[in-house]
Design goal:
The protein is mainly α and 110 residues long. It has a single domain, classed as Arc Repressor Mutant, subunit A, CATH 1.10.10. Helix content is 40%, strand content 7%. It has 6 helices and 4 strands. The strands form 2 sheets. Strands 1-2 form a two-stranded parallel ribbon. Strands 3-4 form a two-stranded antiparallel ribbon. A hairpin with a 2-residue loop joins strand 3 and strand 4. Helix 1 (6-15) packs across helix 3 and helix 2 packs across helix 3 (38-48). The radius of gyration is 13 Å and the shape is globular. The two termini are 19 Å apart. It binds a DNA duplex (13 and 13 nucleotides) through residues 6-7, 24-26, 29, 34-47, 49, 56, 59-62, 66-71.
DNA sequence: TCAGTGACTGACC
DNA sequence: GGGTCAGCCACTG
């Protein structure tokens, strides 16, 4: 509701990741003013797993590595989801990560 | 209640 | 240039 909680904000940011784009845990954490709490973003994503409107597969680590793919119930579900959106993934890593990178600080700045 | 763990990151050596 | 350490905070046993 008020999104006063850190997790709530993480959900809102993650939910606004455009189609075919990806971002990093640190980027979200930094946008929320908690760059040191990138782990919390990861944990939030784990909780976001229950959220249907949270594209957690669009959130990867700072180098575009699909570190959380094992949390999708499958072995390469996360990769398939990204590839389905036009995001090339190779060796569990997003290809041209810098090109597909979506910075919430730039898109949601205000 | 205490201690360990984790979908990370930046700094240090 | 690559490996290691510490910090961050919530959840579980």
């Amino acid at each position: 509701m008020e999104s006063s909680n850190f997790f709530e904000k993480v959900y809102e940011v993650a939910a606004q990741i455009p189609y075919g784009r990806v971002t990093s845990y640190g980027a979200i954490a930094k946008y929320l003013g908690a760059a040191r709490s990138a782990r919390m973003v990861g944990w939030a994503m784990n909780n976001a797993h229950a959220m249907d409107h949270i594209p957690a597969h669009r959130v990867v680590n700072r180098i575009g590595l699909l570190t959380g793919k094992h949390h999708f119930g499958g072995t390469n579900i996360m990769q398939q989801l990204l590839e389905n959106e036009g995001v090339r993934v190779h060796n569990n890593q997003v290809v041209d990560f810098d090109t597909h990178f979506w910075d919430p600080a730039e898109a949601l700045k205000g």
